């Protein structure tokens, strides 16, 4: 009986040691175009993207799973090391993408996320209180949300597209209605 308990204890300790503790923070794709925020705890990963937040639960070892509630697609994240993950869909060829902890000041990145996420929430609230301009405020909310987690290059591209959309629905195209979310230089270049 003691031998069995000893072997069981070794197996449990081995599996616990095999689990890698991921560093919470901003993660960026290898091409540098897309940045997300990941909050890690022992049994889950919370992936915060510009348009959604998904909670992945530990499936086994260093693999976490999220099943989309609408389309039932099974998404996985594997923790490769404390600062690297791979996203994938099981049984789908060439679906693995590597995402690494962003370099630079993690505190600044977290402050950026908090600032622009709160701004996006304010614009979402305006969608409800100012229904006649709800479409406008939704574009502003989308720009702020993108700015909360995209890298600079990705955000500039996205903000340009949002600016063009806003310019289609407003009368005064010279001034951005949400300069706190879309920088003036991006607004002015959007044609």
Automatic annotation (TrEMBL):
Q: For this UniProt record, give its keywords in alphabetical order, as a comma-separated list.
A: Signal
Q: Which residues form the signal peptide?
A: 1-18
- From the Swiss-Prot or TrEMBL record, give the protein name: DUF4369 domain-containing protein
Gene source species: Pedobacter boryungensis
């Amino acid at each position: 009986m003691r031998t069995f308990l000893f072997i069981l204890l070794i197996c449990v300790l081995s599996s616990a040691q095999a689990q890698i503790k991921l560093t919470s923070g901003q993660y960026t794709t290898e091409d540098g175009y897309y940045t997300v925020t990941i909050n890690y705890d022992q049994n889950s990963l919370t992936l915060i993207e510009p348009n959604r937040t998904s909670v992945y639960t530990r499936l086994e070892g260093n693999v976490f799973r999220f099943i989309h509630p609408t389309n039932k697609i099974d998404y996985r994240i594997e923790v490769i090391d404390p600062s690297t993950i791979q996203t994938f869909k099981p049984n789908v060829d060439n679906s693995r993408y590597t995402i690494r902890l962003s370099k630079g000041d993690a505190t600044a990145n977290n402050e950026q996320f908090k600032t622009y996420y709160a701004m996006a929430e304010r614009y979402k609230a305006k969608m409800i209180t100012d229904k006649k301009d709800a479409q406008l405020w939704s574009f502003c909310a989308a720009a702020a949300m993108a700015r909360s987690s995209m890298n600079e290059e990705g955000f500039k591209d996205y903000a340009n597209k949002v600016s063009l959309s806003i310019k289609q629905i407003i009368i005064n195209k010279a001034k951005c209605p949400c300069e706190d979310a879309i920088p003036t230089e991006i607004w002015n270049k959007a044609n």
